[in-house]
Write a structure and sequence with these properties.
The chain is of the alpha/beta class and about 290 residues long. The chain has helices spanning about 15-20, 30-35, 40-50, 70-85, 110-115, 145-150, 165-170, 175-185, 220-225, 250-260, 270-289, and strands spanning about 1-5, 25, 60, 90-95, 120-130, 150-155, 190-200, 230-240.
């Protein structure tokens, strides 16, 4: 598989990525139309434009802010179509569960549900959630059916939740998460997996994002990749870097402003420096998984 950077928003410096062997496709005109939420017609048109510039082997994808994370479902669909894989496990590292069943259909807050609609996807497993969506009343909008049947599993940090929520969702801790992940990874030996990584799963000193940060360290993720070496990787994508929030439609802008955390905008050069340092650590292991 080949790596490629899809530049939607200048979250990454293309020249610096080229130095570590990641070429760039300039897709910045599409970025404001796709950011955070988008109608399916716009997504299909945009991805058709991109597909004409991607080769079948381009399945290690780096793109911009976590505002675009819902595109992971489309990257997954593409990987399945290209590899004809079946019984795929979707593995997501994310500070958010992205399980919201409310409209809009395509958004960064509910895209896991779209991936679960693919008949080839047997299971989705989200690791590293630490935000408010597990608490009441936000958890009312989770995909209860997928959770009840075991098709969706969310492994959240107990340290970020109340004792009641930690018990309700059987949350992991910094002390026991590696044991849990080892058992999870052992069950994937010989099976097809697709990995998506949102950098907001990482601590704020190792990833600067447009969203709240989680508790994973780069060392944690490197260790996780080693546990997955016996699985068959069909594709991988990384998003979650920081970029200016530019939107094409008024409703899109209003919804995004309501949902985003209220925090000072970081310096883009500082964000690129921190995130590139982390990418340098992660990329070799991710591309060997």
């Amino acid at each position: 598989m080949n790596p490629v950077h899809i530049n939607l928003d200048d979250a990454w410096d293309a020249a610096q990525l080229q130095q570590i062997g990641i070429p760039t496709i300039d897709a910045r005109p599409l970025g404001p139309h796709l950011r955070y939420i988008a109608p399916e017609k716009i997504i299909r048109q945009s991805l058709q434009t991109l597909s004409e510039r991607l080769t079948p082997d381009d399945r290690l994808l780096l793109y911009g802010s976590g505002d675009f994370h819902y595109l992971a479902a489309w990257w997954l669909r593409r990987a399945i179509d290209l590899t004809h894989a079946r019984h795929v496990t979707l593995l997501s590292f994310d500070n958010h569960p992205d399980w919201d069943i409310r409209p809009p259909r395509w958004s960064c807050g509910g895209w896991i549900n779209r991936a679960l609609e693919f008949p080839e996807v047997a299971h989705a497993s989200v690791w590293g959630c630490g935000n408010f969506e597990l608490a009441f009343p936000s958890r009312l909008f989770r995909n209860k059916k997928a959770l009840a049947t075991g098709k969706l599993a969310v492994h959240a940090w107990a340290e970020r939740q109340s004792p009641k929520v930690a018990t309700l969702f059987n949350c992991m801790t910094r002390n026991n998460w590696r044991e849990r992940f080892t058992n999870f990874a052992a069950g994937l030996a010989g099976k097809n997996i697709y990995i998506t990584l949102d950098l907001d799963a990482l601590t704020p000193d190792t990833a600067i994002t447009n969203w709240e940060n989680g508790l994973f360290t780069p060392e944690d993720l490197l260790w996780s990749m080693q546990q997955l070496r016996n699985a068959t990787l069909i594709g991988l994508d990384i998003c979650g870097a920081c970029s200016p929030q530019l939107y094409a439609r008024p409703l899109q802008l209003a919804a995004a402003r309501f949902d985003h955390p209220k925090q000072p905008a970081p310096s883009l050069p500082d964000a690129q420096r921190v995130n590139l340092h982390t990418l340098h650590q992660l990329w070799p292991a991710l591309t060997r998984t």
